[in-house]
Amino acid sequence: MIVQVRHVSIYLFSVFVCSISLFCYGFFPLSFSPSTKSTPSDLPGSMDSLRLDPDGYKPRNSRAVLMVIDALRTDFVAQRDNMRFLNELLANGSACQYQLQVHPPTVTMPRIKAITSGAIPSFLDVILNLGSPEMKLDTFLYQMKQKQRRGENVDSLYVNDFYEGDKNITKKMRLEFGNYDWKMMILHFLGLDHIGHVEGPFSDKIPGKLQEMDDVIKEIYGAMIKWNEKYYTKPLLVITGDHGMRDSGGHGGSTYPETHVPLLVVGNSCRKSDELFLQIDLAPTFATLMGVVIPHSSIGSLIDPMFNDVPSVDRVYAAHYNTRRLIEKAQEFYKDNLKEQDFYVQYKEAKLLHAMFLEHRDDLVILDKVLSKYAAISKHLSRLLIKNYIRYDMLSIVIGIALSVMTTILAVLLMIIPHTSEQVEIKPKLFIWMTIAAIALLAKIFLKKYSITESSLLQSTYFNHILLVSLSSLTTIHYSLLAGLLPLLSRTNWLKQTRGLPSYLLLFGSCFHTLSLAASSFIEEEHQTYYYLTNTLFLLLTLTEIRIMNATIAQVDQAAKSSNEVLLEHCRRERDEFCISAVLFFAGHIVLRRFNQTGDKWQHLPDIGDWLGRDGNRVWLSVVLAVGLCYLLVAVARFSGFLTIVLSATSCLLVYYYRLMTGVVGLFGVAPSKTNSCLTIFWINLLEIFFIAFLPKLYRAVLAKPAPKSSQLLASLICIVALLSALLHKPHNVVLLAALFSSSRYLVARIDHIAESKAENALLKCVAHVWLGKLFYFYQGNSNSLATIDLNAGYVGLASFDFTRVGLFLTLNTFNGQILSFLLLVYHNMRGCVSDSVDKTSHVEQSKTLVSQTMLKVLSLVVIGPMTFYVIVVALMRNHIFVWTVFSPKIIYDCFYMGLTGVQIAIVYFTF
């Protein structure tokens, strides 16, 4: 069977997507905890032969308010001028402050799960953070609902809503304060988090928002006093944050400001403590105070200082109850070896002390010992269970990696076969398929029988049978492809196809970047790798161009005659102008590199974007935005006709007007009316730009007229993406868009001059644009940390939350560098295929086939190679301390980029 090389590339990429999906299925379990619910029968009625009284396990607070202030950093509470009332409560002993440690990822939904269930949520919950389904885990909210108690939670996902959502919550709170038909209220205030996302923790809006939260606390405290006087109740107010906020304003990473939040308790006779508690400790503590059973999924410990006014017998009972639960959970991991563990020996001693205390209830020494013993055991067990609850499906991981490695080998072989080879002959054999299927089936039976590993793939389900057949078929096809590719390798030497230093640099740089992924520091500072590689490529291409110019000048000078003096002077002037432009080009990139600090080690340092974001520098920000829009208009004009340029200019003015309307920039004190009409016109302009290029093609298609070879539709798409990106970007980052256009043009011009063949030309352009996209991805301030995602971009022009549009805007803004650089690559290659050929039929098609084939192979390999190596590293380092803070977030980024690459491959396939 004969197949085209381009189809093989698409097949290999598709198989790689499946293999990575299988790896992620094993590496990121969807849930660490079952959906089993606790029941009142779980309360211990005895301890060994000693009878216990569960009646003492009852509500300690008749009415409770849980106030979650999203992104509340610990240092915010210390701002006495902004949270004056709360600090007064802390000073006079009416409130206590504790410190909570948050587990990454520090995003809202996983943290809400941790607070309410006491479990460690799945890392993949970060993907489901927006528009998540109903939570199935057991929580103290569910347990309270079983006793006909209810909670109240009103929030808003609209990131530009700083005040309205919080005001609605406060209004609803006041209405409920007049009723006595509830036992618990949950208030989730999101305004502080929204301000952080848009303007950062040092925004001038932060003090006002903290004062607003302080006023809410004061109002709740006043209501608590009335409840106590009127109903003789004992109310409780608990204030905390779901996560913190990094200095740049985002969250999702593992820095100290993101992973440490305050816990403030108002109303109970709490005891001060400097101990660091875990966020998951809040669920069992809250459940115990409210007199409901602890959620089944909870692996947290009790926050003992919050039980200061609980009778000693009941405190010991609660401590025993939670510790026994954790012992039972540890049984799942240690099985018959449980009683040999040190913590179990300590647990037996704690029970002996517990029994002694029940006999001598006035002995405070025994009380302290038993509480300390239970607390030490439960904390040890919590940390032990956190470590063990990260369950990997090793069979899925191994199969995913094995399939990825096989695919990578074929992708590399496909890359180094002669570029003139357009077809591959494969001969699948039934015998090989049957042999592989039999081996896979026997391996499955062996693994299942001897329980070497636990995996859902070993279960006899319809899906697993299909998966077994599919894996056998893919392995057979891979083997046949290998047999078909090997004979093609002997036809030519691949190194001879890619001569020259630029080609060797791309090869070395790709290999170096792949190997660097084995180190966590290189992952955190990956931008440094691309800064070095891409700028080295720029420099090498520039020096090569100058060398060619000098050789031309020397050749002209050697044969100089009176008639060649003008030509010689022209060559020298052209070289000098190029050198000046090259110096300006590199100087521009030096400035762009300092627009946004990124990475981990130097992310906290001030940058140009921080300076422009200050209120006192709003005039300079306005100038930078205006210059960026003008620069972008000039760049877009190179691709467009007159009418498109007019519409683009109007769109740029509308972008500036929108930023003026939102108060981001200023223009001579002008304050335009706040209306969305400017954005409506903006969307209409983008549609007009699209139809200007699309309607002529549609007209010719309807009339069946031959359409001339043109890249105008693609040029219009580039223009639309660039203008939309200008709307979504932070104002100072608009300059990056035009700089990307200029950098792409600079690369294409240099490569066209130095490439010795069409194959080398296509290869250099493709890899160089992949690097260029990554370069501007980091210039924009992005990194491998989830905290650098600019959520504000997802809500530009929206009045409410819309999952589809928010997701689309976030994708376009975050991966803007890769998207635009790819579109520019396609555009330049399309124009090159037509302009380089004299014969507009056969030569054009031959050139398109070569370019398409090269692009498909390169786009596939630059994703397949590094990611395969990376998942191997991650699998080997799955117990590394940074596995969830450094390695895992990059997998999520890479998987998302892999999806974008799939779209790019589809565009190349249908365009050329």
Automatic annotation (TrEMBL):
Biological processes annotated in GO: GPI anchor biosynthetic process
Annotated protein name in UniProt: GPI ethanolamine phosphate transferase 2 C-terminal domain-containing protein
One Gene Ontology cellular component: endoplasmic reticulum membrane
InterPro entries named among the record's database cross-references: Alkaline_phosphatase_core_sf, Phosphodiest/P_Trfase, PIG-G_N, PIGG/GPI7, PIGG/GPI7_C
UniProt entry keywords in alphabetical sequence: Endoplasmic reticulum, Glycoprotein, GPI-anchor biosynthesis, Membrane, Transferase, Transmembrane, Transmembrane helix
One GO MF term: transferase activity
Topological category with respect to the lipid bilayer: Multi-pass membrane protein
Family: Belongs to the PIGG/PIGN/PIGO family. PIGG subfamily.
Endoplasmic reticulum recorded as keyword: yes
Subcellular location per the Swiss-Prot or TrEMBL entry: Endoplasmic reticulum membrane
Residue ranges occupied by any GPI ethanolamine phosphate transferase 2 C-terminal domain in the UniProt entry: 483-895
Segments passing through the bilayer: 12-32, 394-418, 430-447, 467-489, 501-523, 619-637, 642-660, 680-699, 711-728, 806-827, 858-879, 891-910
Pathway assigned to this chain's UniProt record: Glycolipid biosynthesis; glycosylphosphatidylinositol-anchor biosynthesis
Species, as recorded: Culex pipiens pipiens
SUPFAM superfamilies hit by this protein: Alkaline phosphatase-like
Pfam families xrefs: Phosphodiest (PF01663), PIGO_PIGG (PF19316)
